Give the backbone structure.
Amino acid sequence: MRKKENIDDRGRARLEAKVRIRIIGVDEREEIYTGNISKEGIFIQTSHWKPRLGHPVQLLISLDEDKEPVKFSGMVVRVINANQMGKPEGVAVEFSKIEARRTKDFDRFLDQIFEGKGLGCRKSPRAEMQIEIKIKNKKIAHKVLTQDLSKGGAFFKMKTDHIVLGDPLSVVLIHPTSKRKFVLKAEVVHIRQGSKEYNPDFVEGIGVEFVDLSDIRQQDLHVFLKSIVSSKRRKKPAQKYE
């Protein structure tokens, strides 16, 4: 698979949100789509739009009710069909151009989503991202990757042998660019077990809830996660319209 088609391997976190979008040439008017969005692109959950890979796309995305929508250009890098178990049906678009003079508006929009202030946002929105962490307790000590992360908890991609619900864990988050570390206590609240034999998209792992966080530590965690969401790892940022 070409690198640009593998939208799951992006360096920047994707934020879950409901977004007001008009897909030019597809929608007659603005629609509210569920999906996830980052500075690099967007995944739109939809069953009525089936473009081909590499198809050029123009989107009008409303970032603020009081301002005109922002024009984004991009390319379809993935199409997920209804029969692909475990993932929502939809289309992934990688941005290539953003309307000039609106990039700061877009940054503020992403900040609002992360703050839980976006349209239909969770109180603690999840950011889909892969970062390295260390976890340990009396039974295990592993380096693993996150699948998603929020201020309230996370999902870790890992083998679930020797893990039981309620297990306490010591967790060390490692910032993907600065390599700064953040130490947390967590408790296992979900165990996902299964097989790729019947579902190629299956991911084994555990869901954890962060515990024993004081107000100050919660704020520190928020700042740490926000710095991950904002970190720039792309070599070629999206162009601006002149």
User: Anything to note?
Assistant: The first helix runs from residue 103 to 114. Residues 1-11, 232-237 have pLDDT under 50 and may be disordered.
